Amino acid sequence: MKKWNNIIKNLLLAFVLISIGYAIGKNMSQRSVGNPDTPAVNVKSGQYLKVYYTHATLRCATCNNIEKMTHELLESKFKKELADGQIEWQVVNFQENDDFAKDFDVTTSGVIAVLMNGDKTVDFERLEDVWTLMDDPPAFNDYLEKNFRKMLNR
């Protein structure tokens, strides 16, 4: 009987710890980004690039690293464009935003470059090679930089 009590106690403890970890992760992902369902107060005019990092509710180390590497590239190579609004960076949980996932056909974590004109999507590209290039940072950065510049120059 004591053996069963220990097993049940350990299972309940594991459940509680997993639940706490899930809640903390969900809270942190919601804090890091505004809600994409919320309409923008000031709709931009003109053309600009939105760079999204999309992720699922549960995130792995690789997903977090792709987000970090993409953001670092933007901060280093596109600092001026970020500052003047030519580029916007946003992290989105696609599992909590069905409309976003449908609009951009998102089924997995990744990077999406979206060319905008005001509040309208002009074009977009899912940059799926980030997964195969993440172990080669120079190639990863070149791939993203070329695609971001190509979108900006349309």
Shape: elongated
Largest sheet: 4 strands, mixed
CATH class of the domain at 47-152: Alpha Beta
Helix content: 40-55%
Estimate what percentage of residues fall within beta strands.
15-25%
| DSSP strand tally | 4
Structural class: alpha+beta
CATH superfamily of the domain at 47-152: Glutaredoxin
Poorly predicted spans: 29-42
What would you note in describing this structure?
Helix 2 (61-77) crosses helix 6 (137-152). The chain is built from six helices and four strands; from the N terminus they run H-E-H-H-E-H-E-E-H-H. The chain has a domain at 47-152: Glutaredoxin. It has helices at 2-31, 61-77, 79-83, 98-103, 130-133, 137-152; strands spanning 47-55, 87-93, 110-117, 120-126. By secondary structure, it is of the alpha+beta class. The longest helix is centred in the N-terminal third of the chain and has 30 residues, at 2-31. Strands 2-1-3-4 form a four-stranded mixed β-sheet. It is elongated, with a radius of gyration of 19 Å.
